[in-house]
Design a protein that fits this description.
The chain is of the alpha+beta class. It has four domains: 5-93, Uridine Diphospho-n-acetylenolpyruvylglucosamine Reductase, domain 2, CATH 3.30.43.10; 100-218, Uridine Diphospho-n-acetylenolpyruvylglucosamine Reductase, domain 3, CATH 3.30.465.10; 222-337, Alpha-Beta Plaits (2-Layer Sandwich), CATH 3.30.70.2190; 345-435, Alpha-Beta Plaits, CATH 3.30.70.2740. The chain is 37% helix and 21% strand. The chain has helices spanning 5-19, 24-27, 51-64, 118-127, 144-149, 157-160, 163-166, 195-199, 233-247, 259-268, 298-311, 324-335, 337-344, 359-373, 404-423, 439-445, 448-461; strands at residues 20-21, 45-46, 67-71, 89-93, 100-104, 109-113, 130-131, 167-173, 179-182, 208-215, 217-218, 222-230, 251-258, 282-290, 317-320, 347-353, 378-384, 389-395. The strands form five sheets. It has a five-stranded antiparallel beta sheet with strand order 5-6-10-8-9. Strands 1-2-4-3 form a four-stranded mixed beta sheet. α9 packs antiparallel against α14. It is globular.
């Protein structure tokens, strides 16, 4: 291994004791992803407090040919923020950069550092009767920079789109240390490529996001949350179309989950209760929202929508949350699926999408196909049916050895699932990114022309290959 003593001395002098450490105990929590799937090693952990410090650290790394693994809340699902085991890189954490630079209530926008936590942004917006229209289960740890770098989705994409749609401007440090400043939001700007969009979703391979200007919306005046019991995923698709026709833009969320996922959550959360009596093959969580001019009609709309759904035979049973506490409980059940299923044992998690109109048919065909091909496994799908994106998990047989099962049968399962998705014209990564988990599969299944363009952009912006190596961009065959 190369002697990194001069580099570490320079990094420590640059960032100070709060901004740099190479102590194993201090680094340890940030060298493993939150699911425990990937662990690595690092020369040190850099935690700059400003964009200028990020720029200076990047220049220092470039001078010493040191790779950089950017990290936000370390809550990613694809190992994109975890270094490899060579110990030749540093982890660059943005967590200390957590300042709101400007909050513009009149123009409904906010400029903040990349390390701001999503839940903190929600709370700050609420102080001015505004809201940021993206949320997800990890809102208490996910950072704005990480959400931008992975183009995160969540449960409100149906109405508001992914993180890409929320970003008005961006600031980022490029691999040569230059600061790309595009924070000023312009509704019209035809001066060539939209470079901020190139950085969104690039997983830290092209630039390190240090700040963003984000759009905000007026707070909702109220909401109605509905839990419906259904027979099949095909019924859920029909119910979604029914709700879209009845509610229009007031339909903000439509999530689905099978009975197995609900049962896992009820076992995992000691105080949780099923919203409905009886057994249902599938469940739908529906949220309608109203602003000041529509809130009074929202309860009647929900009642009429459900009544006509019952008449059409689309639902077996349903309950409308009678209070905000009940509404939050319903969403807690949905948001707890991943940790509940993780508690069961090993599983292969797939974040996939197919064309929206075909998703229900895909799930209906793919679940039994996987269980037939891999006996004793349990395949489940849940998530954002209205976005054409579900989380497709395959749970290991009882007694499977964690780590060993994923590396053996698990990899075969993922390849099988990804082949199915590709046959249906879909994507192997809908919202969690490629990271290191799927980079080989992207190389195997990706369009050769698209992969060539990815590599060309990477080579042009990062000729030394120092930004998040081994992530997102497959090596040429």
């Amino acid at each position: 291994m190369a002697d990194y003593s001069q580099f570490t001395a320079d990094a420590a002098a640059l960032l100070g004791p709060k901004g740099w450490t190479s102590e194993a105990e201090a680094m340890s929590p940030w060298l493993t992803d939150w699911r425990g799937r990937y662990s690595g090693a690092a020369i040190g952990l850099g935690s700059p407090s400003s964009t200028e410090e990020v720029s200076a650290l990047v220049k220092l790394c470039a001078a010493h040919n040191i790779a950089i693994v950017p990290q936000g809340g370390n809550s990613g699902m694809s190992g994109g923020a975890t270094p490899d085991d060579t110990g030749n890189a540093i982890v660059l954490s943005l967590r200390r950069m957590n300042t709101f630079r400007e909050f513009d209530s009149e123009n409904r926008s906010v400029t903040c550092d990349a390390g701001v936590i999503l839940q903190t942004l929600h709370e700050r917006a609420a102080q001015d009767r505004l809201r940021f229209p993206l949320t997800l289960g990890g809102k208490g740890s996910a950072t704005i920079g990480g959400l931008i770098s992975t183009n995160a989705g969540g449960t409100q994409v149906l109405r508001h789109g992914t993180m890409r749609a929320q970003v008005l401007g961006i600031e980022a440090v490029l691999p040569d240390g230059q600061i790309f400043d595009s924070l000023t939001p312009l509704k019209k700007d035809n001066r060539g490529f939209d470079l901020k969009q190139l950085l969104i979703g690039s997983e830290g391979t092209l630039g390190i996001v240090t700040a963003a200007n984000l759009r905000l919306l007026p707070e909702i005046a109220g909401r109605v949350v509905i839990w419906a019991g259904l027979e099949t995923i095909l019924d859920a698709r029909a119910l979604l179309l029914h709700c879209e026709a009845q509610a229009g833009e007031r339909l903000e969320g439509f999530e689905v989950m099978p009975s197995h996922s609900l049962a896992a959550v009820l076992d995992h959360l000691p105080d949780a209760r099923a919203p409905l009596n009886g057994t249902h093959g599938w469940h739908a969580l529906i949220e309608l929202v109203g602003e000041k001019d529509t809130i009074e009609t929202l309860p009647d709309l929900a009642e009429q929508m459900l009544s006509s759904a019952f008449e059409a035979g689309l639902v077996n049973d349903a309950a409308i949350a009678a209070s905000e506490t009940q509404a939050e409980h319903m969403w807690l059940l949905r948001d707890s699926i991943s940790p509940a299923e993780r508690a069961i044992g090993p599983a292969m998690q797939h974040d996939i999408s197919v064309p929206v109109a075909r998703m229900a048919q895909f799930v209906d065909a793919a679940l039994p196909a996987v269980e037939t091909r891999f006996p004793q496994t349990r395949a489940v799908a849940f998530g954002h049916l209205g976005d054409g994106n579900v989380h497709f998990h395959v749970i290991a047989p009882s007694g499977a050895i964690p780590g060993q099962w994923e590396e053996q049968e698990g990899k075969q399962i993922s390849a099988f699932v990804h082949d199915l998705v590709t046959e249906w014209g879909g994507s192997i990564s809908a919202e969690h990114g490629i990271g290191q988990m799927k980079v080989a599969e992207l190389g195997r299944l990706g369009d050769p022309v698209a992969l060539s363009m990815l590599r060309s952009v990477k080579d042009a912006l990062d000729p030394q290959g120092l930004f998040n190596p081994g992530k997102l961009v497959p090596l040429a065959q």
